[in-house]
Amino acid sequence: MDTAAGRRGGRGLILVRLRGGLGNQLFQYALGRHLSIIHDRPLLLDTSEYRAAGPDPRKGIRVYCLQHFNIRAGIAGPDETAPFRRYYRPDLLSRVLRRAGGLGFVYGHTYVYRSFRQAHVHYPRVLERRPRGVYYLDGYWQLERYFAASESILREELVLGEAPDDYNRRMLERIDAAESVCVHIRHGDNAYGYSPQHGVLPPDYYARAIDDLARAVPDPRFFVFSDDPEWARENVRPGGDTTYVDGNGDERNYEDLRLMGRCRHHITANSTFSWWGAWLGRRPGQRVYAPGRYFMHLEVPIGGYYPESWNIIDV
Fold this sequence. Notes:
By secondary structure, the protein is of the alpha/beta class. It is built from twelve helices and twelve strands.
């Protein structure tokens, strides 16, 4: 990680507030990095959310994870984030300011906000506007079109900086040697109350995706990843040659992402972590299956969240 890149005073830079798990952090970094490239500005990451509170077992691991990748960004200090702190306060005024049109100006700097309900709706102004002072991005940016023009650079950077240990090296060898299919199941935080709006995908979704893929791909070998491996074993059984990957755990989910990205095909969950596993695994002939709803218990447009080549299954 290039920690020196952003230390050019407090002005003329891109500053991205990170929030959520690794999948969201990757979307937030990708947009920030794209803007830093097209505007030739340094990029800083605001990681204050992860310093403010420890991990919550209901959420899975919600810690800063991007340091494991070859990213090009520095970490913002209190001086860089100070002009924007009033937007963090959970009072009425702060909520109004954050949601007033999604765009504001703070002491000569630009502030852009998108809520999770807006994550899949394209907001072109974030790309069109020339940064003024510090360009502060706060929110959810879950669309490939925000960073598609910088895809080749991002693919070079979103690789782990350390070699895999013995467990992951052996798993990579098995994945590379097979017509490997990544099956990702998000269950823990969705089922136990932290993310009730997401909901849990029914096992039938996975069964239909597996059946369709098995008709299209000869001799598939399934690698199942989940934040709740026990539930996955009991409820999603692809049959044939299946491996339940459980050697990393939440605390090393970035290693799971490396494994997922090496698979040839993907069956995703309603999860940004899932999305990135499939995106990083893009290759000729890849088949990807995704649920037609991201939020099972909210009417939120899915917009352009999924790349056009993915196969969408109604749920």
